[in-house]
Here is the input.
Amino acid sequence: MRSTRFNELTFDADMLSARRDDGTELRFTRLERALLLNLAGQPGKLLSRGWLIDMLSRDGAEMSERNIDFLVNRLRNRLGDNARKPRFIATQYGEGYVWIAEPVAETPGEAFLVVGPVYGLDVAAAPAGTRTLAAVTSALQRSMGADRPVVSAPDWNRETYGAKVEYNMDASFHFDGDSLHAALVLRHAPTRQVICTIRACVGEADTSQVANRVAKQARQAIWAHLALPDGAGPTPVDTPLHLRIHDAALILSRSTESWRENEAQLIEARAERPDDPQLAIMWALTLYAKLVLQSMEAREKLSSEAWKPIEDEIEELAFDNLPKVQNNPLLVLSIAKLLMFIGRGHLELAESLANDAFARSTAFAAAFATLGQIRMFRGSIDEAVSLFDKGIELSERDSEFHLYLMILKCTALLAADDRPALDRVCTELYAMRPLVRIQIGFYVAPPHLEWLSPDLEQVLDNFGEVQARRSVEYLYNLSARHFQERKHRRNVMLGVATHMARRFGTGVVPREVARTLGWPTSGD
Here is the structure.
């Protein structure tokens, strides 16, 4: 993400610091940064003290309403804000706080979306048209999120302002004496491709309602443009479809749970096109993401029993729609991925589908990812690592796809118990994305360590027995259960099971995992 400017302050992408126009730099504490991310990430939304307490407590801090008020006041002082005449944070007395600062792009050429060029604002149309432009720009900004600047620039053109704009919305107005008629054309700015047209009639009283409708349609169109494959066919560097829709959701979502964004968009799309097989496969991929991401991010992870009905639906969608998408290699690869993930004896079919899609497609990188996992689960670790390396070479460094492939490579090396190679990949991975250390550190930690690193031990301090057990179950369901050789399942599970059992007792290790590890169980 790029930096974001609010009023006279320019915040870096991670909200670690901000810079005033005179060059003065502000550095934020951990709690100030967490508060900023929650407030600025949801502009215009009332965040209750209770909600903020819950969010900030996840970092291990003991919070109360008094702590929240103190923290907000301290942050206001740092920002140069005033509670009586707020420019950043407004107080809703007795309820909570609202981020009211609007992001400002340095120039229109650096915005995510530009509302412009604008036509037809003659003398008659100017008053209503100006109000409508302001309302639409504000609604679009709320919809896109604080880190995706939306700018109104009536004279905008790509030649003048350059190409650092993702989307622009042409606006044409006509005033007939009673109502303002608007024709809005949303384009992908670099290619000038039209991705959405919106017709609106604006009366004096419904400007806000029209603006919200425009913002909703624009958001849906941008999601579809980012998530849905176009008719040109995949290229060798294209990402798998489940990561493409994940990336689309991350761009528009204010939450790390991208499956929620995709779920909302697909429910609307499938209501309009219930028989569309592509949307059906994308829905199955969203269910897959729901299992993986919700289980990874929830404080109390999903149990194994909760996975089964979701996997049942994924299986049904995959088999019902496979005959309908035979000519689309990217969708066939997606079905192969889904069948491989749910297991149930479908690994050979998944491999056949992936090989066929690879033979008929130019989607090399996407195929390498799926074929690498299949080889890994079959026990051909060296071949799997080679395929992952080929995919890594084709992927954009530090992209979600690049990260995904490196984690798959870590899994393969963990299964092979190749600790030197695993340590090298983890070092590179953590340098790119430090947060990944917290996400996978328990899983790759050597079992012989008496203590984990302090940051991981601190995370364990916030665990209970239920969450510890679910963490072990999660890794088994996500990865280990698919390996056909017991030694590979054992290598994948040994570290996390050992460290969770050390802290919480062997009762947090499910029976199936204990048997894989050769540990005694109560029923044996």
